[in-house]
Design goal:
14-stranded antiparallel β-sheet, mainly beta
Length: about 900
């Protein structure tokens, strides 16, 4: 009698592995690896020929696990990065394995780790670790400009930083040759408003020279320099090429020489392996249904083929090696094998077993993964992976569609914890590589352009139909689950095909594409135009319409599938409001929805206790609706954590927590228009009202905009004058006068400087801003009228609190369109709501005429006056 294998404890699948991520030091003397310390993954080091029990603890993280690390080329230090609670603002740290223990007895004799960058709200990027100067690394810092990384040389031993290039040319990547010389750069051409084409630039003393360009729907990237020092390996599908191809580019001439593309002409070039000892290309790899390899070096191939005989049916990977390549640390893995790690002596061909990843996981209970293909709605063939539960017939099973993120990524054959988890619970697990997935050629990738929620979603829907037609899936027991884009596809699935799924789990998925694009982190600025091209441009009316139509939030009324929403509170990519918007929309129509919010996570969960709590909830939720199996309960810590991160939808309000480091300047759609405007205004304080007159004048001279605002009050005239930079409309200067007080401010180089003059005293002002100011002071409502306003439009920007002399963040949301009548007439207007994004009391509502983008009505709560309300209506 056939039967499913015993339930696998989720701790074995999603808990911290006992040992993982090992790296051999370049001199071969040490092995560094990851292992839990105080229930958090940390770095340990042992001598290569000693047992793991002799290892010494290197790091003492307790808040978040260390994801990975690397040895410096001289084997003196171990470097790693970490952020804070998932905010993706990474700093670089280093630890010296030979250093004495810290003086802190709580740290179990670990040496001290040094924060080499020690910056807040900054995302550090690693560009190069040169062999010729092993004591340094080249990094990028976006502390000056949040969108672009300046290039620095970082001395690992001291943390000394030397500025090499100030990035005023929108460079996304800096590329060094094998001798450590800066030779090339990459950027998105005219990313501030152009086509989004990508270009490779030669770095010259006088600047940059374009040497290779591909359009926004193509790929061209530098891999590394050739050993001849003249040419560089690139991957490209420029022009008539469909599949990504390995090529050599001569930066001096722009000449390109093809090296290799897939010999079977099925998939993109995947990756290249270069000898650490000789810098020769020794192998190329292609990710097809399974990986394929092509060898260029006979000795490399001979060793690899010998290893394959020792691990039949498994994939072999070289995790690391010594600088002379006499020893390799290799891994053998497959769909039912998370990984076995061995030390391999190439000369003697001796294999020394090190460890198994997730050693306690019962391999005999794991299910094989198979590649399948099916046709979508328009006949396009879609590749996918299917994992069937072990021990039962593949007939009328509950099925779970697991959609990958990106969406410009792909699933691959191999061990997959999600696939094994749900297959063990009795589900047929289906993982489609829908159009827009990478790896299958330019045509397949570009077939996903402008197809979010449409043909990309069809590819998933037709995958469901394939499972039903094959008799594998029970049509009334099909669920969908995904993270990031996969979360979007989950929401789109239940919103646009409401009768298809019996249950759905959205993990950090966007519900409103307008707010998703509006909250792109500044350090993604290089990719903004590419995202606009592959999705839609929110600065264009047609683009805004497209984004609204494809946003599940706007079709929330159609959802009738049980839904669970999972979110990290600090997610810088998919802001938590994406989750809260859909939770509120379903709650307010009385539809049940479950919500998990982890306060210490970002874009996906990193802490095992959070993952375990999430999957404990997810498997029980799915079992309740799809009748799969589930494991009851969990460890006390996990049960307690699930209770902590479970949110009652009745209590959900749109979050006002915004990371200042992710706040940029909203893109304006139109320039200001010169003009003079008068308003009838009143100040309401309880039952008392005071009549006021307000006027605003907008002028332009010499490419500089100036806004003047006067308010006539019974206590005298108030004047506010603002100078704006043309184009982005950011603040350059501001002057405020009322009676004997005058305030003078200038905003440049990330600082506010000036003075407050009152009764003969002059008090200086000098404040760090962390970025430019927008829509602040005189004319601010007219500046807001220049944004690409549409129902649902969202943005966050900086203002400056003059009284408290500090930055404040303002959140803007177009609530809806309304008809509003004022003395100047009746207007169709956007109702724009402004509020504090960082917990402050600011609150205003603007009604901006759609045809002229003029503010016709303004209502502002004046917290400094005890909550009095200023209302102004356009007179002319």
């Amino acid at each position: 009698m056939s039967a499913l294998p015993p339930l696998i404890d989720r701790e074995l699948l999603f808990g911290d592995p006992e040992i993982s991520g090992a790296q051999l030091s370049p001199d071969g003397k040490y092995l560094a690896f990851l292992k839990p310390w105080k229930e958090t993954r940390n770095i340990w080091v042992k001598e290569t020929d000693r047992p793991f029990s002799s290892a010494r603890l290197m790091t003492t993280e307790t808040a978040r696990p260390i994801a990975g690390f690397l040895w410096t080329r001289d084997a003196r230090f171990i470097a790693y990065v970490k952020d804070s609670a998932g905010d993706e603002n990474f700093n670089v740290y280093a630890v010296d394995p030979s250093a004495p223990a810290s003086n802190d007895a709580r740290l179990d004799s670990a040496p001290p780790s040094r924060d080499l960058t020690n910056l807040k709200g900054v995302r550090v990027m690693l560009f190069s670790a040169p062999k010729t100067d092993p004591g340094v690394i080249y990094i990028g810092l976006n502390d000056r400009d949040k969108a672009w990384h300046d290039l620095y040389k970082l001395q690992i031993s001291t943390g000394e930083r030397t500025l090499l290039r100030r990035n005023t040319d929108r460079i996304a990547q800096w590329i060094f040759d094998l001798q450590g010389n800066l030779r090339l750069a990459q950027r998105v051409k005219d990313s501030d408003g152009g086509s989004g084409d990508q270009e490779i630039l030669r770095v010259d003393d006088a600047g940059f020279t374009p040497v290779y360009t591909c359009n926004v729907f193509e790929t061209c990237e530098v891999i590394q320099f050739h050993k001849d020092g003249r040419r560089a390996y690139i991957q490209t599908n420029q022009g008539d090429l469909n599949l990504l191809t390995l090529a050599l580019l001569d930066p001096a001439t722009g000449q390109v020489e093809t090296v290799e593309s897939d010999p079977l002409q099925r998939v993109d070039f995947g990756s290249a392996w270069f000898s650490e000892a000789t810098d020769e290309l020794v192998e190329t790899e292609y990710s097809d249904d399974r990986d394929r390899r092509y060898f260029k070096d006979p000795s490399f191939e001979a060793d690899y083929r010998w290893l394959e005989t020792k691990f039949p049916g498994k994939e072999i990977s070289i995790a690391s090696g010594t600088r002379d390549e006499a020893q390799w640390l290799i891994g053998a893995h497959g769909d039912t094998e998370p990984g076995e790690t061995y030390l391999f002596d190439r000369k003697t061909r001796n294999l020394s077993f090190q460890y198994k990843i997730r050693e306690k996981l019962p391999r005999e209970s794991l299910a094989p993964m198979q590649a399948v293909r099916y046709k979508s709605s328009d006949g396009l063939e879609i590749p996918a992976y299917l994992t069937l539960p072990k021990g039962v017939p593949a007939k009328s099973l509950p099925a779970l569609i697991v959609v990958h993120g990106g969406p410009w990524a792909r699933d691959e054959w191999g061990y997959n914890a999600l696939a094994q988890f749900f297959a063990n619970r009795g589900y047929a697990v289906f993982m489609p590589n829908f159009r827009g997935s990478t790896g299958y050629g330019k045509k397949f990738l570009n077939a996903g352009n402008a197809e979010w929620g449409a043909k990309m979603q069809d590819d998933i829907t037709w995958g469901v139909k394939y499972l039903i037609a094959e008799g594998i899936a029970d049509p009334v027991r099909i669920g969908i689950l995904g993270g990031s884009y996969g979360g979007y596809a989950t929401l789109a699935g239940v919103a646009f095909t409401p009768d298809l799924y019996g249950a759905a789990v959205d993990i950090v998925g966007p519900s409103n594409l307008m707010t998703l694009l509006a909250s792109i982190p500044p350090y993604w600025e290089a990719a903004r135009k590419i995202m606009y091209a592959r999705m839609a441009d929110p600065e264009m009316p047609a683009g805004r319409q497209w984004l609204e139509e494809r946003s599940p939030l706007y079709s929330a009324a159609k959802i009738k599938t049980p839904l669970m929403v999972v979110q990290g509170a600090n997610d810088p990519r998919v802001n938590r409001r994406e989750a809260e918007q859909i939770v509120i929309a379903l709650r307010d129509r009385g539809f049940p929805v479950e919500y998990l919010l982890a306060p210490d996570e970002g874009h996906g969960f990193a802490r095992p206790v959070n993952n375990l709590a999430m999957f404990m909830a997810v498997e029980k939720f799915l079992a309740g609706h799809l009748k799969g199996r589930y494991q009851e309960g969990g460890s006390p810590a996990v049960v307690a954590r699930l209770e902590e991160i479970t949110v009652d939808p009745k209590t959900v309000v749109i979050s006002k927590t915004v990371d200042p480091s992710t706040v940029g300047v909203p893109k304006v759609e139109t320039e200001l228009k010169p003009g003079a405007y008068k308003y009838d205004a009143k100040l309401s304080m309880g039952d008392q009202q005071m009549a006021l007159k307000l006027s605003t004048t907008i002028e332009e001279a010499g490419g500089v905009w100036t806004a003047f605002e006067n308010i006539d009050t019974p206590m005298g005239e108030m004047q506010d004058t603002v100078t704006l930079a043309s184009g982005r409309l950011t603040l350059a200067k501001r002057t405020m006068k009322q009676g004997p007080m005058a305030i003078y401010l200038e905003f440049s180089n990330g600082r506010a400087t000036g003075s407050v003059e009152m009764e003969g005293e002059d008090k200086p002002i000098s404040v760090d801003l962390d970025g430019p100011l927008f829509a602040d002071g005189a004319g601010s409502s007219f500046v807001i009228g220049c944004l690409p306003l549409a129902d649902g439009y969202y943005a966050v920007f900086r203002n400056f609190d003059v009284q408290k002399q500090k930055v404040k963040l303002i959140e803007l949301q177009v609530a809806r369109s309304e008809t509003v009548t004022v003395p100047a007439g009746t207007f169709q207007a956007f109702k724009v709501e402004l509020s504090s994004a960082d917990g402050g009391p600011d609150k205003s509502t603007l009604w901006i005429a759609k045809n002229t983008r003029t503010p016709v009505k303004i209502s502002t709560v004046l917290a400094e006056m005890g909550g009095a309300t200023l209302t102004a209506e356009l007179l002319q």
